[in-house]
């Protein structure tokens, strides 16, 4: 088999490997800068592997992981490059800035695609023979409200809470936070945005690539400190660095695991909002249908429902599917 997922989470596509280290492959693709897609990166660098990513992913790696390796080369979307007898092309996946789907075309004309993490509504599916598929929300129960409803609900929720509270704190992962900043800015948010240092550096990279986020200040800057003391603001924090909050603060959690409605109140001045950089179950099925593969390999190395997704693909689409590596998970 020229396509496989190893126990360590490496995605093997013929002569290249994605998002993991493999001792038999000297060329690695990084699809995006989230930690679960950087497994074994230090080993790849230490072994002298040639590594490719988009320019934005390379820049995010410097901020998020402190990696400045000259081994990391960049490839623009839809600009093919070669390794031995394979041709590799990166396509947008819209998960976070710089994230990519990977197409590998062999000398025999076989087409292998790795979806990585993706947002179905914002990308185009790629026709292929074998598809390696994200399975994070691969269970049939994982169906979210449409993005437009979640977007409208989030904007209204923030606007309403700012009428009654001094500040709104939004908790989410890198990429989600910047997407919400952009949306609130485009919706006409009047108050400044506060970022802790690492979130701020990520925001600056988004702005470097032309994404307007509004008035963004570091929480450690003089202006940021003054705003936090004397003005109304919206703060954007990673969940692992939640700030101190008081009775005048509304807390909003961004999560892909909110399915029943666009948002839900969990206690006084605290909400969870349906917001994800991943496709839900229905969107995964649509994506597979549009890719028209002969075989689907669902990603069972990362958290999700790879076994159940493979079963549903076979039952609903009549396409052969299996989880890799094999484990007893649903």
Structure characterization notes:
The protein is 27% helix and 26% strand. It is of the alpha/beta class. The chain has eight helices and 20 strands. The longest helix is centred in the middle third of the chain and has 16 residues, at 147-162. It has a seven-stranded mixed beta sheet, covered by helices on one side. It has helices at residues 41-46, 55-65, 147-162, 176-186, 197-208, 222-230, 281-291, 306-317, and strands at residues 3-5, 11-13, 16-18, 27-29, 50-53, 72-74, 81-83, 86-92, 100-105, 111-114, 130-133, 167-171, 193-195, 216-218, 233-237, 249-255, 263-267, 270-274, 295-299, 320-324. It folds into two domains: 3-141 and 278-324, Ribonuclease Z/Hydroxyacylglutathione hydrolase-like (Metallo-beta-lactamase, Chain A, 4-Layer Sandwich), CATH 3.60.15.10; 147-274, Rossmann fold, CATH 3.40.50.10890. It is globular.
């Amino acid at each position: 088999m020229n396509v496989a997922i190893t126990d360590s989470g490496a995605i093997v596509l013929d002569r290249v490997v994605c998002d993991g280290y493999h001792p038999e492959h000297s060329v690695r693709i990084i699809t995006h800068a989230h930690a679960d897609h950087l497994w074994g990166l230090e080993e790849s660098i230490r072994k002298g592997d040639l590594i490719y990513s988009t320019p934005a992913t390379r820049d995010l790696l410097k901020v998020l992981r402190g990696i400045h390796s000259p081994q990391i080369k960049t490839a623009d979307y839809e600009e093919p490059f070669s390794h031995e007898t394979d041709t590799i092309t990166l396509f947008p996946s819209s998960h976070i800035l710089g994230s990519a789907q990977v197409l590998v075309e062999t000398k025999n004309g076989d087409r292998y695609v790795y979806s990585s993490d993706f947002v179905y509504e914002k990308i185009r599916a790629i026709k292929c023979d074998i598809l390696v598929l994200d399975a994070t929300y691969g269970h049939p129960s994982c169906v979210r409200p449409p993005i437009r409803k979640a977007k409208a609900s989030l904007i209204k929720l923030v606007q309403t809470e700012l009428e009654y509270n001094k500040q709104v704190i939004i908790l989410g992962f890198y990429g989600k936070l910047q997407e919400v900043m952009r949306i609130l800015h485009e919706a006409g948010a009047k108050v400044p945005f506060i970022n802790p240092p690492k979130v701020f550096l990520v925001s600056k990279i988004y702005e470097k690539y032309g994404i307007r986020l509004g008035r963004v200040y570091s929480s450690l800057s003089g202006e940021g400190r003054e705003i936090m003391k004397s003005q109304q603001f919206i703060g954007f924090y990673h969940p692992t660095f939640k700030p101190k909050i008081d009775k005048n603060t509304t807390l909003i959690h961004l999560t892909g695991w909110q399915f029943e409605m666009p948002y839900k109140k969990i206690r006084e001045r605290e909400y969870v909002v349906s917001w994800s950089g991943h496709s839900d179950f229905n969107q995964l099925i649509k994506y597979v249908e549009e890719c028209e593969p002969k075989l689907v390999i669902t990603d069972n190395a990362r958290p999700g429902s790879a076994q159940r997704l493979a079963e549903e693909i076979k039952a609903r689409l009549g396409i052969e599917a299996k989880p890799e590596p094999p484990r007893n998970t649903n």
